[in-house]
Amino acid sequence: MHVVYPAIVSALLFSIGVYGVLARRNTILVLMSVELMLNAVNLNLVAFDVWLRDRLHSGQVLTLFVIVIAAAEVGLGLAIVLALYRNRQTVDLDRLRDLGESTGSPGSPPPASQEAGAGETSGAAITAPTTAPPITPTPPAGADPQIEAR
Q1: For residues 3 and 48, is the Cβ–Cβ distance under 8 A?
Q2: Strand-pair partners of 26
Q3: Mind listing the pLDDT tens digit for each residue in 62-87?
Q4: Which keywords describe this protein according to UniProt (predicted)?
Q5: Global pTM exceeds 0.70
Q6: What is the pLDDT of residues 103-140, one digit of tens each?
Q7: C-alpha span between 64 and 69 (Å, rounded)
Q8: Are the beta carbons of 59 and 45 closer than 8 angstroms?
Q9: Residues in CB range of 99: below 8 A, 6 or more apart
Q10: Cα(10)–Cα(37) distance, rounded to whole angstroms?
Q11: Which long-range contacts (CB under 8 A, 24 or more apart) does 66-71 make?
């Protein structure tokens, strides 16, 4: 078999995966598109390993490593998606842009800052930093106060 056929199939799979990552808004579909891209790389590795007749089969060994990394990526990615769904009740990427927790309805952006007063024109409240009172050291029990005063 000629190496062009697997290379074309791999390029098509990779292109579909890139389109899925760029165009999809659902997190699960983006993870599936990344897996499609990794499988396209695996197909290239095996095809060129067979075409070059490598005695060590390094393309196939690399493919095994990519499969292991992909499995770990799926496990971690799905754990993150489940945690996001529990906290935000959505897996839509457009609604997950903000890192802060929302206080309104599930999936809605957080409200604007409520710290600004009615008469302020800048839109943000400026507060002075608070300082704690200085800490005075206390002598240990049984210490001579005249020695520590020097």
Answers
A1: yes
A2: 92
A3: 999 999 999 999 999 999 999 988 98
A4: Cell membrane, Membrane, NAD, Quinone, Translocase, Transmembrane, Transmembrane helix, Transport
A5: no
A6: 656 555 555 554 444 444 554 556 655 666 677 767 66
A7: 9
A8: yes
A9: none
A10: 9
A11: 66/38, 66/41, 66/42, 67/42, 69/38, 70/35, 70/38, 70/39
Separation between Cα atoms, residue 41 and residue 62, nearest integer Å: 10
Coil, helix or strand for 148? helix
How many CB atoms sit inside 10 A of residue 3's CB? 13
Q: What are phi and psi of 26, to 5 degrees?
A: -90, 130
The reported pLDDT for the residue numbered 92 is 85
With a CB cutoff of 8 Å and minimum separation 6, the contacts of 19 are 33
From CA 24, how far away is CA 36, in angstroms rounded?
14
User: Packing angle between helix 58-88 and helix 27-52, nearest 10 degrees?
Assistant: 180
The token pair at 127 is: 């507060």
User: What is the structure's pLDDT at 117?
Assistant: 47
* CATH level 3 topology of 4-96: Helix Hairpins (1.10.287)
What band does 146 get if pLDDT is binned at 50, 70 and 90? low
